[in-house]
Specification:
Blueprint (H helix, E strand, L loop, with lengths): L11 E5 L6 E2 L3 H14 L15 H11 L5 H18 L1 H7 L1 E2 L3 H9 L4 E5 L5 H9 L21 H16 L8 E5 L2 H9 L3 E5 L6 H6 L4 E3 L5 H8 L7
Parallel strand pairs: 1-4, 1-5, 5-6, 6-7
Antiparallel strand pairs: 2-3
Helix pairs in contact: 1-3, 2-3, 3-6, 7-8
Length: 244
């Protein structure tokens, strides 16, 4: 690790993806997207098989609108996001009843949160209010510093969200986290690409739509089947020698 400035302790920044990595929402995120399309356009989408894994909400929204031949899609995104947040909020109980945190998530968040010199937040394609709804549905929201996160509402390019999280960390904690001290945890090749584009490392977990082999081939620095092995996770994060 590197020091942010002379005399200040090293800080390690762990940034979590949400869907597929921390939680399974039982399809409620996709359902909210489709509801938002219909609420804004007055009809359901004729083409609804838009890929979502690892993408930001702005990218997904534009893709959905463009595939359905909607002109001027950029102008419709703000209203779509308002409708999507309202729909997701209404589906919170369904998420809690039919979805679940991924294996080992709660224990991992608690362990890392109790590790000195470590800050943890999010890098997620979800717009900020939806990210909070998804974590709150499973009681995970108090375990990360939500105000440090990089969200789809901050930028449409995932690698830029890492920079957003670093800037928020500097503003709140007055520490400048070096790229080498930043680690993402995600479940798609797009998470891998975003981490490396931002100079960060990536721990990939095969709890989403991609296999461990596919994540290895994508170039992940560490690949885990899930988050139940805390020792393996801490090693992948570079925290196995941290004092607790």
């Amino acid at each position: 690790m590197r020091r942010s400035r002379p005399g200040r302790p090293d800080v390690h920044l762990v940034l979590w993806d949400i869907d597929g990595t921390l939680v399974n929402t039982a399809g409620q995120g996709r359902a909210a997207f489709m509801h938002a399309f219909e609420a804004v356009l007055g009809r359901p989408p004729a083409v609804d098989d838009v890929p979502m894994a690892g993408r930001t909400d702005p990218a997904i929204g534009l893709d959905l609108l463009e595939r359905n031949g909607v002109p001027g899609p950029e102008n419709l995104l703000p209203r779509m996001f308002e409708e999507m947040t309202a729909a997701l909020s209404q589906r919170r109980e369904l998420m809690a009843a039919h979805g679940h945190p991924q294996p080992g998530v709660r224990e991992a968040l608690i362990e890392i949160g109790n590790t000195p010199g470590v800050l943890q937040s999010l890098v997620t394609g979800n717009i900020e209010p939806n990210a909070k709804i998804k974590l709150a549905a499973f009681g995970l929201d108090p375990l990360v510093e939500l105000d440090l996160g990089g969200y789809g509402s901050d930028h449409g390019t995932r690698s830029e969200l890492v920079q957003v999280a670093r800037r928020k960390t500097l503003a709140k904690h007055d520490v400048r986290v070096h790229p080498a001290d930043t680690v993402l945890v995600g479940d798609t090749p797009l998470d891998v690409d975003a981490a490396h584009a931002a100079g960060a490392r990536i721990v990939a977990v095969a709890t989403g739509p991609y296999t461990a082999r596919e994540l290895e081939q994508a170039g992940a620095d560490t690949v885990l089947d899930d988050l139940t092995d805390l020792g393996a996770l801490l090693t992948g994060l570079g925290l196995d020698g941290a004092q607790r």
